[in-house]
Write a structure and sequence with these properties.
CATH architecture of the largest domain: Alpha Horseshoe
Shape: globular
Oligomer: single chain
Number of domains: 3
CATH topology of the largest domain: Leucine-rich Repeat Variant
Largest sheet: none
Amino acid sequence: MPYDPSIDDANPDKKSVFGVIVHSFFVIPFLLAIFSVLLLVSVRILTMEKRDVNDYLEDVKTGSLTKRWQSAFELSRILSNPTMVPHDEKFTRHMMMAFEKSKNDDDRVRQYLALAMGKSGIQDFVDVLMKAAPEEKDENLYAIITSLGILKNNKAIPVLLNVLNNDNAHLRLVAVIALGNIADGRTIAPLKHMLNDPQPNVSWDAAIALAKMGNKSGKAIILNLLDRHYLDQIPHLNPQEQSRIMMVAISTTATWHDADIKNILKELFDNDKNMNVRTLARRVWEESHG
């Protein structure tokens, strides 16, 4: 039988009952579900806002395995912001204790704690990291060396120089980068030696490290790093990575006032395919002519 609206109109009670059923079984549960979700999100946000570095540090010390390494990661992230770093003896002491305890923990806990110590900028951590380095496994040593480079304390130079002899090219690389960050003239001779490293990345960063100190011993390598034809021959190096390498090389030669470099910079800002490379090359070239 066709639907006749007059039937419902003639039976308001029936229509009212139908509305109550819809409201009870669909609308109210739907609104309750939305309210529950909003409540959970609000609680989550409030909880997140109240957590600080000390809360995460406590989780590193007492939490489950998953919570420990995730909290250590959060510390390494938060402490990269100088305004979030607690400059009090208690925090420093507890970070040291947590790092010492992490010797027998999951490697991720130790690695993220090491990085957190470096990113904090707290110089008291230098001795702790230096002490750990000689007997550390390679996976963790990478984070320790990186942090020593971030802290830029020349006390760490002997430890970093020792890593230059490591068979692991990745460790040699981070040691070279760390020494470049510290930029101490006493490291020029060992960095010159690393220009001949069989791993291209190591020799590249040795040249960059020397360039930061105004030393042109790696000039031939720097010129290669400014040449896309050379970089095209390096396997697995995409155009974006090429551009990043070129920009680092351009920046580190800004104070050289070298005729060969100037000519290449002119060529780059006229013709390079990457706008950022062109812009930086022009700026450095103009500064060298200022």
